[in-house]
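testing teh design pipeline on a random one, pls ignore if ur not involved
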């Protein structure tokens, strides 16, 4: 009985629980009596039947949900993918309801909305799904980028990128931020990782690769070591300036404002103040200058063929005579400056002979001088001109403060000048025009120079006042040089700029300059028969200016150009560098005192010094042989698709179409990295940079050495065939280009990264993103710029007149279309796109059609159809266009948007997407857009070229 009571007590214990309830699981795991084998079997069968019943109910519910969706029903579908246990939640509204995306892990819930009239995705649920990590990340990125509350047939840019815009912001130090910036930032992280992993010390048994990397590390660490740079101060630049002045003559600051005819009393005013705001039109002029300087090589532009309204003859009459000694000094000074990469007085470039038999033969081109201000319009803005004078004077004051330039000449002359001024004033000679020093002055080598006739300084003039007068003369001289040059639309237009003359005629047109001696010092092995003069009136204009300008102004001009060029290689707290920064802030419209990003500065400097070595390391980290082969296959397939389409282009006649096919066949695609130098071979890179001296703690020396080597290397190509393995960009550059004179399209490794490309992506995503970039560059070969160069890169007409007229008619359709697009300024007013300016780029964007055709051709061969997880509802065609739109995601400040719309040959990113797709019939078909909707205009309102 006692035992029974105890047992009863145990059985009754669960009734004492707080919930007063026996759970199902408790009954299974803690039965009140032993369970027989038969009971266990029946229980197991019951559980199996329950699972099967639940499964069939779930399948039925799924089918019913799909049926409801097709009828406008309202059911939920939940897709969950876990990547990481730390969640970051993003919510995106879609036309079917709301997508809540939790990244790391990613959980997506789609709630349908029966009232939505937005076209629904048309994907097939039975496709293969790519579940690689790369595809999962891509799918998550696409979901987060989209704003599918927007109707894709009304504003596809907002539909595909609105989510990205709402979840990103513009960094404080930038005017815009977009996909290109994001890829560049990712590339920067890779480069910093590579550089930081390089040992500080070079191993004793180091091979070529280690020695190359040591140069990279030394260049970067020396640039980043601002404490040492600040401690070194101005001395490296002062030493360099002394070399120049040893060649040309001492810096003479004993001048007055009214010494010669350059002076205009209306210019001698102080209009600058700290509250000045740079007019927008000056920023526009600066952007134009930057664009045009790059346009002839890698930037497309609509080159006009209208007759040039300027005199184009080269005046080689000897109207001026120059002292041989002065002529020699000017020649030697220019050779010194040009070898150090300093643009002064005359500029020589080595470029392909686009008008000759073979554009790959490198020829000599003569350009006009460019000033220290961004464009000629800046010289006419009095506050800017006054600021420029002030900055130049302070640069020269600081660079001479601790050097023998001043100690051996300036201080001595100051004391004697003051004495002589007192004497002159006493005897009444100070006002005589012919007043001159009574004896020659010894130079620092003890030799006497001929008597000079500078105007004596006024009694009591300070050092600052004298330097300001010299700076004023220098700025005036530079302004006259800039005024003498051609306007940009003529200077860089190949139809106007290609003016070859015999070298002897150019020599005669520049009597102040010993051209044979200069060429022998720059390129001792080759003497060119011809020189292409980009603006034939310029030699006569510069000759007249030099004839009328005294040596103290020329010397100050040469000194100022050198200091302006190399001020950036000094420490950030060095006064010369601070003055240059002060000027740049105003010229670029940057807030005063905005701190520089030193890592960005130094990464750019390392590119300039040893860029291809850095490129090799970048390729090793981010690029693979498989990706290179795949990208080349994509590009070649697009070229072939375009080639095969040409005979069916109705507005081209048969002969023009055949010529276009020849050009397409001749195009050279380059992907990833150059073969000259061989980026895959450390020994090749070591030879390339063998003469470049890079020592730790000597950043200025590395900059000088790399500049000298690069200038020398360029001049050695004169008269020779260009190596087709060479590039104009480094592998780590996020960009791509078409070179008209080389007939090649180039894609550095850096642009072959998401959202542009991944080797692991399905083909429709690759072709929609990277394929559109490749097709863009290809189409440049046949736009209104590239179409002026034949298959060999020669500047000549290869289309019939009828084809040219038909092309121009369609190009004008594109121009008018884009001229209806706009951006909003800071006040919310519309500023319209200049369709003529953007015409070449807009036409190139239409190359998306070639990428689409190439992808469709590939599908016919492979039959591949690979969906993305969570995006199975979208068809491959729809994802193709989403991938295209995503690469143009961008945020931009209103002021920057207005500035770019006036200067940038590219349309705003929004309209690059919308304008391209409005003209693309396959897009309308993929999204079932109705005629008359925002993304599908009537046929007569669409523009089509290729």
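output:
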């Amino acid at each position: 009985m006692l035992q029974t009571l105890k047992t009863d007590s145990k059985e009754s214990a669960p009734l004492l629980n707080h919930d007063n309830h026996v759970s199902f699981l408790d009954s299974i795991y803690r039965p009140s009596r032993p369970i027989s084998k038969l009971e266990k079997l029946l229980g197991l069968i019951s559980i199996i039947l329950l699972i099967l019943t639940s499964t069939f109910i779930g399948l039925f519910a799924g089918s019913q949900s799909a049926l409801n969706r097709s009828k406008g029903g309202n059911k939920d579908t939940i897709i969950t993918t876990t990547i990481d246990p730390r969640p970051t939640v993003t919510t995106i509204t879609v036309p079917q309801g709301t997508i809540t995306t939790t990244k790391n892990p990613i959980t997506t819930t789609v709630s349908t909305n029966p009232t939505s009239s937005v076209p629904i995705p048309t994907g097939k649920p039975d496709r293969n799904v790519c579940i690689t990590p790369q595809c999962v990340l891509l799918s998550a990125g696409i979901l987060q980028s989209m704003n599918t509350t927007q109707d894709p047939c009304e504003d596809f840019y907002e539909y595909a990128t609105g989510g990205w815009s709402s979840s990103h912001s513009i960094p404080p130090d930038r005017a815009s931020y977009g996909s290109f910036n994001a890829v560049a930032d990712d590339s920067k992280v890779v480069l910093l990782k590579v550089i930081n992993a390089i040992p500080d010390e070079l191993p004793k048994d180091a091979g070529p690769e280690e020695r190359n990397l040591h140069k990279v590390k030394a260049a970067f660490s020396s640039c980043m070591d601002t404490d040492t740079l600040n401690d070194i101060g101005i001395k490296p630049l002062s030493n360099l300036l002394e070399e120049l002045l040893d060649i040309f003559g001492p810096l003479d600051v004993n001048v007055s404002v009214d010494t010669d005819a350059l002076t205009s009393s209306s210019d001698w005013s102080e209009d600058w103040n700290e509250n000045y705001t740079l007019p927008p039109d000056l920023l526009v002029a600066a952007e134009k200058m930057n664009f045009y300087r790059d346009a002839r090589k890698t930037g497309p532009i609509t080159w006009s063929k209208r007759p040039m309204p300027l005199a184009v003859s080269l005046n080689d009459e000897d109207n001026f005579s120059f002292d041989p000694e002065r002529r020699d000094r000017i020649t030697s000074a220019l050779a010194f400056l040009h070898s150090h990469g300093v643009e002064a007085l005359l500029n020589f470039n080595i470029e392909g002979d686009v008008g000759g038999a073979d554009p790959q033969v490198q020829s000599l081109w003569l350009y006009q001088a460019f000033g220290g201000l961004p464009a000629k319009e800046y010289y006419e803005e009095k506050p800017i001109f006054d600021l420029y004078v002030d900055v130049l004077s302070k640069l020269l004051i600081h660079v001479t403060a601790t050097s023998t330039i001043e100690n051996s000449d300036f201080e001595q002359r100051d004391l004697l000048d003051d004495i002589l001024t007192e004497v002159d004033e006493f005897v009444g000679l100070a006002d005589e025009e012919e007043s001159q020093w009574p004896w020659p002055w010894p130079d620092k080598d003890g030799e006497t120079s001929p008597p000079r006739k500078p105007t004596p300084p006024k009694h009591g003039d300070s050092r600052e006042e004298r330097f300001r007068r010299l700076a004023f003369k220098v700025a005036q001289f530079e302004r006259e040089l800039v005024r003498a040059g051609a306007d940009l639309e003529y200077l860089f237009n190949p139809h106007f700029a290609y003016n070859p003359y015999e070298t002897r005629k150019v020599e005669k047109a520049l009597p102040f300059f010993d051209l044979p001696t200069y060429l022998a010092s720059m390129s001792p092995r080759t003497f060119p028969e011809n020189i292409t003069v980009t603006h034939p009136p310029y030699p006569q204009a510069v000759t007249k200016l030099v004839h009328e300008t005294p040596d103290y102004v020329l010397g100050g001009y040469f000194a100022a150009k050198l200091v302006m060029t190399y001020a950036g290689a000094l420490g950030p707290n060095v006064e010369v560098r601070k003055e240059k920064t002060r000027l740049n802030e105003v010229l670029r419209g940057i807030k005063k005192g905005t701190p520089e990003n030193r890592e960005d500065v130094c990464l750019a400097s390392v590119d300039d010094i040893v860029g291809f070595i850095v490129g090799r390391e970048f390729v090793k980290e981010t690029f693979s042989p498989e990706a290179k082969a795949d990208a080349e296959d994509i590009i070649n397939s697009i070229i072939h698709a375009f080639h095969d389409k040409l005979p069916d282009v109705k507005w081209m006649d048969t002969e023009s179409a055949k010529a276009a096919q020849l050009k397409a066949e001749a195009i050279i695609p380059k992907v990833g990295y150059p073969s000259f130098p061989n980026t895959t071979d450390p020994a090749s890179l070591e030879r390339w940079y063998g003469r470049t001296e890079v020592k730790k703690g000597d950043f200025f020396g590395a900059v000088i050495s790399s500049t000298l080597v690069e200038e020398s290397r360029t001049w050695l190509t004169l008269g020779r065939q260009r190596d087709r393995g060479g590039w104009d960009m480094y592998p780590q550059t996020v960009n791509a280009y078409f070179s008209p004179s080389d007939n090649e399209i180039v894609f550095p490794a850096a642009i072959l990264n998401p959202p542009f490309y991944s080797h692991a992506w399905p083909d429709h995503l690759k072709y929609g993103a990277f394929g559109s970039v490749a097709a863009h560059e290809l189409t440049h070969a046949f736009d209104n710029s590239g179409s002026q160069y034949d298959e060999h890169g020669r500047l000549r007409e290869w289309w019939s007149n009828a084809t040219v007229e038909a092309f121009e008619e369609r190009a004008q359709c594109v121009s008018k279309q884009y001229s209806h697009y706009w951006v909003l300024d800071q006040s919310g007013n519309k500023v319209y796109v200049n369709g003529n300016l953007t015409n070449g780029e807009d036409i190139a964007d239409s190359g998306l059609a070639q990428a689409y055709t190439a992808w469709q051709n590939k599908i016919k061969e492979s039959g591949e159809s690979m969906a993305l997880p969570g995006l199975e509802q979208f068809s491959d065609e729809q994802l193709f266009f989403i991938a295209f739109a995503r690469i143009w995601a961008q945020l931009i400040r209103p002021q920057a948007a207005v500035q770019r719309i006036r200067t940038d040959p590219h349309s705003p990113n929004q309209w690059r997407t919308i304008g391209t797709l409005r003209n693309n019939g396959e897009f309308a078909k993929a999204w079932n857009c109705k005629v008359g909707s925002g993304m599908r205009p009537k046929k007569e309102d669409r523009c089509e070229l290729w």
